[in-house]
Amino acid sequence: MNNYKLRFVPLGGVVGVTKNMYLYELYKDDRLTDILIVDCGIGFPQEKELGVDFIIPDISYLADKKDKIRGVILTHGHEDHISALPYHYRDLGSPQVLTSKLTSAFIENKFKEFKLNIRLSQIDYDKEYRLGAFSVSFIRLTHSIPDTMHLFIKTPVGNIYHGPDFKLDLTPPFGSPPDFKKIVEAGSQGILCLLSDCLGAEREGLTLSENAIGQTFEDEMRKTKGKFIMTTFSSNISRIRQCVEAAIKFNRKIVFLGRSMKENTRMASEIGYLPIPHNFLIEDKEVPKSPANKICIIAAGSQGQYDSALSKMANNKNQFIKLVSGDKVVFSSDPIPGNETEIYALIEQLSLIGVEVIYPDIQEQLHASGHGSQEDLKFLVRFTNPRYIIPIGGTVRHQQRYQKLTSDLGYQKDKVLMLAEGETVVFVKNNAYKDKTVETKNIYVDAYGVGDVGNVVLRDRKTLASDGMVVALVIVNNQGQLISRPRLISRGFVFEKEESDLYQKAVRAMEKSLKQKGQSQAVNLNNLKKEVIKNLEDIFYQEKGRKPLVVVEAIQI
Amino acid sequence: MNNYKLRFVPLGGVVGVTKNMYLYELYKDDRLTDILIVDCGIGFPQEKELGVDFIIPDISYLADKKDKIRGVILTHGHEDHISALPYHYRDLGSPQVLTSKLTSAFIENKFKEFKLNIRLSQIDYDKEYRLGAFSVSFIRLTHSIPDTMHLFIKTPVGNIYHGPDFKLDLTPPFGSPPDFKKIVEAGSQGILCLLSDCLGAEREGLTLSENAIGQTFEDEMRKTKGKFIMTTFSSNISRIRQCVEAAIKFNRKIVFLGRSMKENTRMASEIGYLPIPHNFLIEDKEVPKSPANKICIIAAGSQGQYDSALSKMANNKNQFIKLVSGDKVVFSSDPIPGNETEIYALIEQLSLIGVEVIYPDIQEQLHASGHGSQEDLKFLVRFTNPRYIIPIGGTVRHQQRYQKLTSDLGYQKDKVLMLAEGETVVFVKNNAYKDKTVETKNIYVDAYGVGDVGNVVLRDRKTLASDGMVVALVIVNNQGQLISRPRLISRGFVFEKEESDLYQKAVRAMEKSLKQKGQSQAVNLNNLKKEVIKNLEDIFYQEKGRKPLVVVEAIQI
């Protein structure tokens, strides 16, 4: 066995919470033989205000290795674990994909949108799957989405327990509780390394069961005289199901609003995960026909997103549904850090209309995290009893808190490996060490497509956001001589009218600079532009202490 | 298999919390073949103020069955699980006793005090033990005393998981965490019935780990300029060990005070469960020779018991140890219900001296319950996945709360059997029903011995406590005629001096009554006594509205 080596390569997910993508590479005699990929999700960048929709993992490291890829496993159906796959699927060599029932439905739908085929197998929990030299069994776990799994991966070097996003929910409102038997059995076969979710490592105790929320929905619905509106993540099928069940109990018709909400609930219904009696499901245009206290609206927009279904209602932009006093909006989700401003603005707007708004700050048991707290995390360690541990799915502070927890469980610091993105770990028999780092970069996706939002664009957007932009139009002849006076257009820099002196000065500087250049015959427009930019930047900085984005458009006639 | 029947008989422990003693009876063709006894502990009666020290289970039901007893298993070393065994051992036919290491040390010591031999085997966790038709394996659990076990009992009718007092402590300061592997493996073999501790069923979440207390001891010790005194249950070896470890860290010599504390810590030390460097252990008489800040006293008396080691110090009755301002007393135990008055009086007394007193009301993490809270209890159900459940070790309200918990886990009410003492359950293949009740009574033990404190004595003590006593001395001749004037002696009724009118009246009434009786020849002294008692009771009730205990001593000369 000594000629085998296992290398763990996180292409994402280790410090950024989202954008989960992990590689397990097996080497025999230092030759790469097999790669197993776990998850391929999108990430949510800090720079979201700059027009970036999301980021996807950088798989350029895999470019010359795709013949070694034995399969992709998706652990659950959240965006940050599955949604990058359609972008990369062909570049990965269109490998087989294995996942659970709900995740299958979600990923199939995504591939359909991309007009792509996928080689997809829905796994059987009772089977063990051979993927190259890897042997994988799937373990039922609980999270904020049904059909969440952990993986028990046997390799020639040792056994890996891959334990992403989970909590130990003993009373899931839908689906089975965690399969403790399989977890512990995996543990009893000897675990070389546990990879564990660590996002909840700062919270004491055990995470609240998802089923605590169902009672809250009933209690709130009972007290609501008008329309009942619930908003949460559209992937949280269990949560939505509990709201649906309460609505049926109180004889309220159900309306799904928002594209993702409609899509996800439709898919969940199709596979039997969200049963709704036929006459209970209505469209928004039917709402005005029913009494307000017979309506339950389940809407996307819990993060205060601009133009979300909820936001539209709050701003009276829904053609059919008008919110009024007596209606109640329940936010059954915690703010994702960074979204607080938008969420509170939305709550403010709803309150203004006279709608009663219930959100986790003012009412407990409205949202249960999908991630295990300290005790959930400790249980997993005790169950699996690993030799090494790698915390995944959290930021550095979560990793550090997790390390402290495991030290209470008796783990030395050198047994708990905290990784940055691209930082790899090599396992040999009974041993592990950090190996060289794989270079990765963020690939930004915005409305225009993949990857065309480079770092330069982002830097520009940042500059625009802070210092504005100045565009200089320069028209020159073949000799680079100015044909007309340069023009300056600015936005977000200084108010042009009030600063005409500055602009005059800038124009004069350009004229001067260009006249000097105009003497040579073959003018290099690019050099000319650079010259002008430098010139203008200097003037603006000297005069205003600011560095607007300066763009020079030189036209040669 | 259909000719087998298993009957569960709780001789104690099901509603009274303490006095744990359970029988498993196996019948073949309705003939009793084997009995397994689990635990044999003492109980703490409500009537403790009446001079009763404790109660023991009533084993008269077993009188004609002792040849069927295949063994006694003690699940852990607490008094309410082991301490009645010496009283009953010979009446049970001196059966073999199986238990863990620390419990062995404790029970052996008890038998020594009783000058009794015991057939004792210390169990091996890796073995399965055949006891008649039962096959028992032992599972490591955690509680407030090391070496606590659960039992997996295979019977011809089905498998029983016997799960008394426990919490799921992932970080026990001493010993192993619960053996999740064995628990879950037991579950995967199919459990007909789980018997589960239910005392913590009212508390949300998971119970605090015992190891949280160690840090608190260190923090408190660091801040203490004078002597550090800790009091807890003397059986809580883990707690004591944490205090000892903190003392060693702060270079404080350790003094154990109180008979039970000295005994238990000596036994624990002998088997290696409480290592103390030799020069760290001193006697109380050596305390005055050391600086106060180099002393750590671990004393019995956490329940405010009269004449306990702590109480004696508080009342300046310890010859060598004087408590002064700057000393600190830490109560690392919650009050057992009913003891609050004594405890707060003791805290008051200590505070008066100027000692700083720290107790759970004012400081968290001073005491961790030994019993699992709601989540611990739910985990055990999920791990074992039983068909039936019997909550044990709690009162009726704990049983009911436990039933609610299990209903959240999907258990119908008819699957959770709540038993009163003596109420039995019969198991046949895949089925269970309540069977006829075994009559039991409380057997009271006080300083004078076993069982001589009957219900009459208790009723008298209650009367004495509330209304006092009057003794009438009557001396009569053979004809029942009064030879001298009757005398009345009273205590706790009315003050004799101030109420001489009343006594005169009572004496006259006796004289009158006895003169009437004096006419018959052969006087019946018993009837005479009853007559006088009735007479006096009537007078006292009419005049004072009270019913003292009236005792007539009639002497015939």
Describe this structure in words.
2 copies of one chain form a homodimer. The first copy, chain A, contains 14 helices and 25 strands. The model of chain A has no long low-confidence stretch (mean pLDDT 88). In chain A, a hairpin with a 2-residue loop joins strand 2 (21-28) and strand 3 (31-38). The first copy, chain A, has 3 domains: 4-205 and 369-446, Ribonuclease Z/Hydroxyacylglutathione hydrolase-like (Metallo-beta-lactamase, Chain A); 211-358, Metallo-hydrolase/oxidoreductase (Rossmann fold), CATH 3.40.50.10710; 454-556, Roll (Ubiquitin-like (UB roll)). Chain A is an alpha/beta fold and 557 residues long. In chain A, the strands form 5 sheets. Chain A has an 8-stranded mixed sheet. In chain A, strands 8-9-10-11-12-18 form a 6-stranded mixed sheet, covered by helices on one side. Chain A is globular. The longest helix of chain A has 20 residues, at 525-544. Chain A has helices at residues 79-82, 85-88, 101-113, 180-188, 212-222, 237-249, 259-270, 309-314, 340-353, 374-384, 396-408, 455-467, 500-517, 525-544, and strands spanning 4-12, 21-28, 31-38, 54-56, 69-73, 96-99, 119-122, 128-131, 134-141, 148-154, 159-163, 193-197, 228-231, 253-257, 295-299, 328-331, 356-358, 388-392, 424-428, 431-435, 443-446, 449-453, 469-476, 487-491, 549-556.
